[in-house]
Amino acid sequence: MKKRSILPLTKLAVLAICTQLACGCAATGDSPNNYESRLLYPAGTDQQTFWPDKKLKKTFCEYWQHRYTGNFKEAYQMEASKYREHYDNQKQYRIYVKRTPNYTWMNARLEQLTQRDDGVTLIKGKWVLKDGTGEVVSSKLHDQWVKEEDGKWYHGIYNPIFIPLKYGDNNKNGKHIENHNTEASKGGGSDTKESDVELDTQTDESETK
Known about the structure:
This protein is an alpha+beta fold. The chain has helices spanning 2-28, 32-36, 47-50, 54-68, 72-77, 81-86, 90-97, 205-208; strands at residues 39-40, 104-116, 120-130, 136-147, 153-155, 176-180.
């Protein structure tokens, strides 16, 4: 009798747990693949021709996924080693990037990818976002990425005043060696305000200690 009563309960418990996990994954939808679908490319361009390295596309989406979902611990680990060596205070990092989760990433209108001779890759475009009130806004996208000795891509966070770091090979002058798709993306955008929000906090040193 005990075996007959315990077995169905066990099956029901397992089924309930699996259902909850499935619902949780479906509800969040926060995966790199989900974010990749929100990348918009210049007219006449697709992802195969825009990205010189498919790993960079995946890392780009993973990094910004962490930023927009408030997972700053993981985002910090994806910053370039030069930044982490100079600014090893994660509290300071959190203050600088804390605004990002206030917005929902609707799409990223990619306009240009430039490879420089110092090993830095620049990505330019525009974020189309939704704020807490549901209003659609936009912000400039200007990213630096560098591939380090471990073969992985890392984000180069930069601010000319607060984080004036130079990434890549210091023996090179940062000359552009190859541009990908300099034509701006078309379509959409009419319902957005041009670059009206800042994703990074502009602070002085007293606020970040």
